[in-house]
């Protein structure tokens, strides 16, 4: 462990055996629509509340990932999961019937990076044969939790992002599969003093820049060694900021940079303001588009960096800043 | 990894180098008062809001643990932390200035068990020289988050527990220190259909019983091999339930059982109804009383099982049940 580093290069590299993405109707109509495993037209997913709908999303993604990875459910030793809702209730109720030991996580929208990081640590240490890493978000449950009830019909500024209704789940195993995880870089809390909960891209960009710079430094590589550097949900405002912040530190990621929030909706036609956001945004883009490109060998090595904004309704109402956090995962093709 | 097990026995056993406990005035007046590192008479901890007070609690416990373990702060590679508040804001703002990579956790009041479990995995896998595991709760921020504003002055039933104002922090290292962690058992979500948020002992007892039984089965040992089996915050109602539930499965833990919630307040004089609760309850009892007894050799081997109730204001208001989860950590003296 070199001092000042925050990364791990795995000797035993965990393999991604399978991944599943389940989304709502709006995501299904977007540019990645054809790549998702399941698109549900009923945004309540047959349930009575938005929270139950989000639990159902996680449940379906988990079941589908197990099917796609062709792993018997009892062989999965641990779940690493969380969501955006207070006390992670989408996860608690969504994964109840799994009957698998759970490490509950909170990393705001960086959760997919955090869950893959901890899952990879456990796998590479030899403490499990299989683990599942997953997360979710739902537009309506998130609006209710963080902003206004939908019925209020508030106006949204251009810097606001649109929380993705979706859940992504990944099964890690020891061998085989479609991709492997070769390293991780764990993020610190970074606070640039942003206080506008309708401009979370600006709040999260400093954390993304910090983690990406740390990754490049720890592994002593240049941005061009990645085919893509993929942030979670910075959106339009945050994309410019993260590129600028890294340029100030001497790293040019403009060519490699991709933001899941800018991939998931059609900017011209879907009225999603600055882009998509939420834990589900990075998770479903990973479990559809990103892993497919890696599996097909079009991208050999990518840095997946979901980004989280650390706020609650209470902290916002009390005038607190919105710190950010970002957790990076190095994903490589099987034949690298 | 044997199928059906949920435990790890560590070959490289992480050592507890130091631990710190910071509490509020009520906890300071209780039976463990003399054992806490810091008792603050101002329940707002010099801050403007209850949430900031809770952040200050975590910050102080973290700083004190670093001092007591005599580890340079930059050598601590990861923080494993969380709290009870929506979006874990006590942690986000309390640990901001630490500038150490953070894995944010949500395990409700089982968080100290979860953080010690993940911290131990990372240590025993050789991915860090030092890590810090911590959590907190605050009576006033928890009442506001889960029940009623304090100003409302609601009556509390006899089954209600009193959220502990306190934070406990533990530094793990490779050698030396006051105790070691020899194993863990990770809990599943367990739901017995309890819906009363003023009776969380009953909601959590089934999860505690499940994890304790799993631990005894996985390690093939009897309850009497532990000097103490220590649940987090079951209180009076939950204590009876966990003993009864385990007896039904053929395990008698009555002699060994101790509940942190029943240790922290004086039942006759302190008016804490069924006992103490909250993430901080198990954490500060561990970091004061439990670790002292282990260090002094009075207890050679204990099973520390913090228990969490998985609910939010929203899930409660929507009529959901309150599932529980419990994470067990086997703590042994250095000279065992």
Provide a concise account of the structure shown.
The structure is a homodimer of 336-residue chains. Helix content of chain A is 33%, strand content 22%. Chain A has helices at 25-28, 50-69, 89-94, 111-124, 139-146, 200-218, 235-248, 260-263, 279-295, 313-317, and strands at residues 7-9, 15-23, 38-39, 76-82, 102-104, 130-137, 162-163, 166-173, 179-185, 228-231, 257-259, 276-277, 301-305, 307-309, 324-326, 328-332.
- Our estimate of the beta-strand percent of chain A is 15-25%
Number of strands of chain A: 16
Distance between the termini of chain A: 25 Å
Oligomer: homodimer
Unreliable parts of chain A? none
Radius of gyration of chain A: 18 Å
Order of helices and strands of chain A: EEHEHEHEHEHEEEHEHEHEHEEHEE
Kindly state the percentage of residues in helix of chain A: 25-40%
Based on secondary structure, the structural category of chain A is alpha/beta
Number of helices of chain A: 10
Largest interface: A-B, 62 and 62 residues
Mean pLDDT value of chain A: 95
Taken from the alpha-carbon principal axes, the silhouette of chain A is globular
Main sheet properties of chain A:
12 strands, mixed
Relevant terms:
twelve-stranded mixed sheet; alpha/beta; homodimer; 10 helices; about 20% strand
Question: What does this protein look like?
Answer:
Two copies of one chain form a homodimer. By secondary structure, the first copy, chain A, is an alpha/beta fold. Chain A contains ten helices and 16 strands. In chain A, strands 1, 2, 3, 4, 5, 6, 8, 9, 10, 11, 13 and 16 form a twelve-stranded mixed beta sheet that branches. The first copy, chain A, starts with 6 loop residues before the first strand and ends with a strand. Chains A and B meet through β4, α3, β5, α4 and α10 of A and β4, α3, β5, α4 and α10 of B.
């Amino acid at each position: 462990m070199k001092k000042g580093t925050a990364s791990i290069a795995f000797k035993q590299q965990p393999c991604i055996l399978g991944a599943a993405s389940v989304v709502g109707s709006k995501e299904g109509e977007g540019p990645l629509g054809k790549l998702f495993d399941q698109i549900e037209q009923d945004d309540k997913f047959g349930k009575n509340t938005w929270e139950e709908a989000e639990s159902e999303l996680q449940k379906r993604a988990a079941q589908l990932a197990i099917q796609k990875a062709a792993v018997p459910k009892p062989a999965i030793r641990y779940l690493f999961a969380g969501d955006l809702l207070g006390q992670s209730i989408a996860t608690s109720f969504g994964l109840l019937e799994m009957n698998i030991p759970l490490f509950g996580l909170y990393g705001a929208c960086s959760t997919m990076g955090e869950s893959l990081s901890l899952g990879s640590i456990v796998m590479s240490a030899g403490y499990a044969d299989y683990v599942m890493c997953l997360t979710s978000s739902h537009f309506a449950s998130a609006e209710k939790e963080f902003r206004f009830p939908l019925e209020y019909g508030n106006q949204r500024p251009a810097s606001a992002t649109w929380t993705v209704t979706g859940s992504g789940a990944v099964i890690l195993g020891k061998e085989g599969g479609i991709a492997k995880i070769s390293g991780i870089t764990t993020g610190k809390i970074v606070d640039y003093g942003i206080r506008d909960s309708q401009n979370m891209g600006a709040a999260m960009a400093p954390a993304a820049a910090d983690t990406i710079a740390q990754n490049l430094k720890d592994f002593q590589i240049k941005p061009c060694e990645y085919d893509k550097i993929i942030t979670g949900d910075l959106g339009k405002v945050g994309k410019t900021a993260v590129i600028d912040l890294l340029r100030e530190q001497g790293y040019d990621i403009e060519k490699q940079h991709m933001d899941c929030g800018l991939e998931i909706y059609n900017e011209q036609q879907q009225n999603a303001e600055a882009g998509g956001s939420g834990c589900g945004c990075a998770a479903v883009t990973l479990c559809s588009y990103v892993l497919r490109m890696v599996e097909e060998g079009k991208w050999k090595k990518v840095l997946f960096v979901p980004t989280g904004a650390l706020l609650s309704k209470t902290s916002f109402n009390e005038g607190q800043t919105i710190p950010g956090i970002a957790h990076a995962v190095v994903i490589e093709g099987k034949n690298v």
